Amino acid sequence: MRYAIYYTPSIHDPLSVAAASWLGRNVYSGEAIEPPSIPGFSLQEIAFHTAIPRRYGFHGAIKAPFRLNPDETEASLLKFMMQFASAATPFEIPRLEVARLGNFYGLMPSVECAEMNYLAASVVEAFDRFRAPLSEAEIERDSDSLTAPQFANLYRWGCPYVMDEFRFHMMLTGALNPSVRPRFEAALRDYFEPFLIEPVKVSSLALFIEPEPGAPLRVHSQHPLGKLSAHQLAARRSAQPGAAPQIAAEHLAARTVRLQAR
User: Which domain holds residue 107?
Assistant: First the structure.
C-alpha cells in the first residue's frame, strides 16, 4: 500500500463533480462514471486519453505516493496529519485555468500562488519521516531525463518535482500527441471554464491510498485546514434556512472523515 497527500475539492463541489465525469471515476467512492458527451469526441477517445489521470483521481499533488516508513503506522500518520492540518491556514487560489504542462493538460493557477507553494513545501518536509526511503534501483529507474535539481529532490525527498521544482496542477489528460492537442484544449476549455469563474478554496488536505501497485487511488480521509471552531463558525454563517441538507452537511464536515469506497 502507498499513501499520498493531495488537494482535491470536497465531494459535492461542482468542480469535483465535473472532473469526476470528465475522468470517468469518482475519487471518493471509486465508482466509474460515464464520460460527458463532448461534440467531436467519442466516449472511447476520451476514456483512452484520460486513463492515467483517471487512476490517480482528480487532485493536485502535494506529496507524491510513498510507502510507509516501517517505524510509523497508519494511525500515527493520521494523527500527525490532523495536527498539521489544524495548524495550517486555509487560503484561495484566485483562479484556475486550463493549461498545458509538458505533453498533458490540466488545471493550473493563472498566476503563481505563493500560499500553495508554501503549503506544498511544508507538507513535503513535515511528512518526510513517514516516507520509506527509495531503493537505489527506484532512484535509478526514475532519474532518466531529470535535471540536477530534480535528481537532488528525488534523492532527498523521494520526488523530483518538489520545492523549487513544484508546479501545482490538477491533471486532466495523459500525454497527448501534438496532432490532437488543439482539439482537447478547446474541449477542456468549453467544458471546465464555467466551473473556474470563482476562486478555488483550499480548505482541506486529503490523504489518498493506493491499495496495491497499479490500483486506482482514492480518498482515504479529508482533513480541514485550520481550527475546528473556525470551520464550525463558517458553517453556521453559511447555513441558510431551508438549505439543502447535503450542502449544510458539507460545510459542517469540519472533522476528519474516513471515506470508504462504496
Answer: 2-111+170-258
Instruction: Check which CATH number belongs to the domain holding 208 and give it.
Output: 3.90.1140
Percent of the chain with pLDDT over 90: 77
Q: Report d(CA 159, CA 150) in Å as an integer.
A: 8
Residue 210 lies in a domain: yes
Closest by Cα among 7, 127, 5 to 72 = 127
Q: Does residue 10 sit within a domain?
A: yes
pLDDT 10s digits, 22-56 = 999 999 999 999 888 898 999 999 999 999 999 99
Per-residue DSSP letter, 194: G
Whether residue 129 is contained in a domain is answered as no
- Give how far the C-alpha of residue 106 lies from the chain's centroid of Cα atoms, to the nearest Å: 11
Instruction: Dump pLDDT digits (tens) for 58-79.
Output: 999 999 999 999 999 999 999 9
What is the tens place of the pLDDT at every residue in 163-199? 999 999 999 999 999 999 999 999 999 999 999 999 9
Contacts of 154 (CB under 8 A, 6+ apart): 134, 139, 142, 143, 146, 160
**Number of folded domains in the chain?**
1
Q: Buried b / exposed e across 169-191, counting CB within 10 Å, b at 16+?
A: bbbbbbebeeeeeeebbebbeeb
For residue 21, being part of any structural domain is answered with: yes
Q: Give me the residues paired with residue 100 across strands.
A: 105
- CA 142, CA 231: separation in Å to the nearest integer? 40
For residues 80 and 221, what is the distance between their CA atoms, to the nearest angstrom? 13
Length of the chain: 262
pTM over 0.70: yes
Element (H, E) at 248: helix 245-252
